[in-house]
Input
Amino acid sequence: MSQAPDHTLSSLFVTEVYRADLTDMPDFQTFLEELDDTCRAIADEDEAGQNWSQQKAYLGYTSYGSLNDLPMRASIFEDLKMHLDAHALRFAEALEYDVSGGDLKLDNLWINILEPYGTHSGHIHPHSLISGTFYVHIPDGASALKFEDPRLTSFMNTPPRKAGARRDHQPFVYEAPTAGTLLMWESWLRHEVPINLSEDVRISVSFNYSW
Output
């Protein structure tokens, strides 16, 4: 007769990351190709964004510091926004947020084109509720997204984790996207893009939601 366990374990203060695959949407390949072409075209024309990226030592291009009207510039971004809005609401529901007193609002939407050997150092997204990225072009060797345990700065006298420790016990977790992957997380969660070891650019569209 087996003996009942003499203890219990509870998971408290869970950090959740939302992942969806948009490849099953109707005409996905056409949608993705148009989004890819549009991101590249805007990057070629946006001199202010090119200058901002250079000043910030971003190896590639981002429209973060130059453009905040992508859905009005190209209808493909309005199509993307429609999908993002639906998934942001689902994520908020999964987090059990009570958002009945207001609306989730897409505050920012920007293009990222990361060249080979480019990185994006660890950061959070202040003044936002939900942040995320939709992945447009992810060649072989392109960076995963790296998340950091939000308690990391509070660890004291902590030994290293055992080899093969559970994913939810790791101090850093990597999410490797493919073209069509959508990732969302709470905006306070620190994350970074490690070095792009691909020989091609890595293209994504990032965003912030407020409430």
Q: What stands out?
A: The beta strands are 17-21, 60-62, 105-114, 120-123, 130-137, 145-148, 172-175, 181-186, 191-193, 202-210. The chain has one domain: 17-151+169-210. The longest strand covers residues 105-114.
